[in-house]
Amino acid sequence: MDDLSRPLAEAITEAEKLIATADVIRTEQDRLEGYDYLAGRIRAALQLAFDRDPARPVLINSTHQYARQGLDNPDALYFHAYIDDEHEWVVRGVRGSTADLSFQVMSGGYSADGTPESLAAFDDRALDIAADGSFALHLAPAPAGAKTLIIREVFNDWETERRGTLWIERPDLLGRPAVPPDARRTARRYEVAAQLLVGSVRTWLAFPHFFQNREPVNTLTTPRSTPGGLASQFSSIGHYALAEDEALVVTVPECSDCSYQGIQIGSDWYVSTDYESHQTSLTKAQAVTDPDGLMRFVVSERDPGIANWLETTGHRTGPMMLRWQRLTRDLGREDGPQVQVLKLDDVRSALPFFAPRAEGEYADRIAARQRAVARRMLS
After folding, report:
1. What is the tens place of the pLDDT at every residue in 32-87?
2. pTM metric for this prediction
3. N or C: lower Cβ tally within 10 Å for the chain?
4. Which pLDDT score is estimated for 1?
5. What average pLDDT score do residues 184-201 get?
6. Number of domain units in the chain
7. What separation, in Å, do the N-terminal and C-terminal C-alpha atoms of the chain show?
């Protein structure tokens, strides 16, 4: 019998070497998180390779809390579909109540050499949505060079917003039975999974050097349209490096000209850290805004005792990102963050509107996060 899975087995060995020798490993926690990351990359590679069938297109959810990549947004559900520029593709659904629902057609996938070309990017304001929330997006055909469709459904208020329903069709093949598997196609899928696995590990180890790591440490950039990203998204990027007794205070105006505004920190594997049972991200709906209209976040390992604490969860270094989505105007420097490094013991006196958390508030916040992630989870 042919050893059809051998390419994937060899790729796992290669990917493990990349993980085990990565320069981001400084502690045992880093190493173990790397192996957890590897498991997610294996899972995603298999899903993307074996769920791919041009005759039966499907929206694949391959990025989530068990398969993190690319500094994934804790507030987003990600859907991926393989398409081409030769056929008609139709995305149908019922709009949920999330803050943003956006679509992006790309010329391929991310690689260690850079980002693919964004061929089209828009949000659901471009759709004709019926009174019951239903819609149909026709790509007939998709833009020239199209390879992938990315859909992002983004939550601003985890408590009240609910995801919608989405699926994709290829009308010319509806009603036809699926082609039975054969050895050649199965072997090819294992080969594709192998390529995706090694490629994704190489890509996301290299990716921070294109963007975040080019900036001085403990700084954040002026908001700008996300490179290769969504038409209505602006972002600010950076990376932190803090001693155990230090804190980073990030101050940013609450934006009333967007449906979604969020901040997150991550690990040097360029992934989100545990946003379910730790507060490693906050949206403007979750954060406390001070009387002067500013949100002040404290990034630190130890708890400063405030609502807008972003936990580093054992990571002395890592990426940071702020996002604004579904904007009604462009952002400028005055809309962006200001950053200050302080001794953690000096934070309370430095915050002009310091108010300590109420007893039990932190546990209540974590419980709410856990329930919200469970409600929306796709895996």
Report:
1. 999 999 999 999 999 999 998 878 899 999 999 999 999 999 999 999 999 999 99
2. 0.94
3. N
4. 42
5. 96
6. 2
7. 32
Percent of the chain topping pLDDT 90: 85
> DSSP secondary structure string, 74-102?
TTEEEEEEE--SSS-EEEEEE--S-SEEE
| CATH code for the domain of 330 | 2.60.120.1600
The domain in which residue 298 lies consists of: 212-376
Share of the chain above pLDDT 70, in %: 97
Distance CA 281, CA 4 (A): 42
The predicted pLDDT at position 354 comes to 87
* Segments in 181-307 forming alpha helices (H): 183-206
User: Which positions ≥6 away from 346 have C-beta within 8 Å?
Assistant: none
Burial class of 202 by CB neighbour count within 10 A (0 to 12, 13 to 18, 19+): middle
| Domain identity same for 102 and 201 | yes
Q: Based on the fold, state whether residues 17 and 98 are members of the same structural domain.
A: yes
- Smallest CA-to-CA distance from 242 within 298, 280, 308 is with 298
Q: Could you tell me if 173 and 229 lie in one domain?
A: no
Do 41 and 138 lie in one domain? The reply is yes
